[in-house]
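Hi there,

I know you've been waiting on this one. I reran it after we fixed the sequence typo, so this is the corrected version. Both the input and the resulting structure follow.
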Amino acid sequence: MTKVQTIRGPIEVDDLGFTLSHEHLTVGGAAMDRIPSIYNEDEAYALNLQAIALAKAAGVRSIIDLTTMDLGRQVRLLQRVADANTGVNIVCATGVYRWVPAYFLLRDPDEIAEFMLGEINDGIEGTDIRAGIIKLAWDLEYRMDEGPYSPRAALERCARGAARAAKAAGVPISCHTLAADELGTPLLDIFEDEGLDLAAVTIGHSNDSTDLGYLTRIAGRGANLGFDRYGGVRPAEENERRAALASALVAAGYGDQVSLGHDGSPYQRFGMNRPTILDCWTYVPNHEVPWLRANGLSDEQIAGMTQRSVRRTFEAAAAMRRA
C-alpha cells in the first residue's frame, strides 16, 4: 500500500479521503516571521485551527499545503498544528515558488534535487516534519529568457531538479502555472524528458483557463489537472464557469484526473495583510460539490475529483520509487 507523508507522520493513501489539492496554512514570503507587523505565530495558529475545524465539519479529511520555504512556509506553525491533532491530514511541501531564490539561481538540477530530498527524507529545518509533495511555480517570469540568470533558465533547472527528487523519493509534484500561457505543456515536456511518470504531476490553476482543448491535451498525456481556484472573491457566475469546465472534463473521460481546491489561506500575507477568511477551505465541499451534483454528476464521479485524483498522483509517484 502507498504511504503519504503528513505533518503527523505517514498514513495510507486510502486514508486521505476528501482532499483539497492546493491550499496554504499561511502564505507570504521567506523570513516574514522576523517582521512582527506582518507575522504573528499565535494568531496564525489560532486562525488555522478554526479554519481546519470548519473544513472538517464540511467533510474535508486532508489538505495539501503547497507553501514552500520562499513562499512563507512556517515549520513551527506546522509543528503546532500537528500537535493539535485536528483530525485533518496536512501534507506539506518542499520546492520553490515562481521567483527562484538567488541561492538557487545557477544551481545544477542535482543540487536543487538534493535540497528537496533533504526536506522529504530528513525533515524541514532540523525538525521531524517531513515534506510529502514537491511544489513548483511557473508564471509570467517564464517569458523572460535572456542570459544565464534569466528566470526561464532557473525555472527549468528547478523543474529538472524537482523531477529527479520526485523519482528518487517517490513523491508527486504539484505546479502553480499561468494557464493563459499554457505553461503545463513545457513543464510536462521537461518532466517527460527526465523520465517522470506524468501521472504523478498536477498542473495547477488549470481552471483559470477557458480552453478545454488545452486541458484535454494535458490530461491526455496522463497528468492531473488542478482545479484549485474556487470561491474567494470570484463572482458566482465565474465559479459556475469553472464548475461547468470540470463537468466537461468528466464527460470527456478525465474525471479522475481533476483535483479540487481553493488556493486559500486563513492567514494571507501575500502582498499585504488581507482580511481573514475562516471559511477559505469550505467553498468546494459546501458549494462546488452540491453544484456538480445538482447538474448531473453522480457521487461516484465527484469522488473521482475529491479523492481518487489526488490518490492517483501519490500512487504513481510511489511506483516510480519502487521501480
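Quick highlight: The chain has one domain: 3-322.

Best,
R. S.
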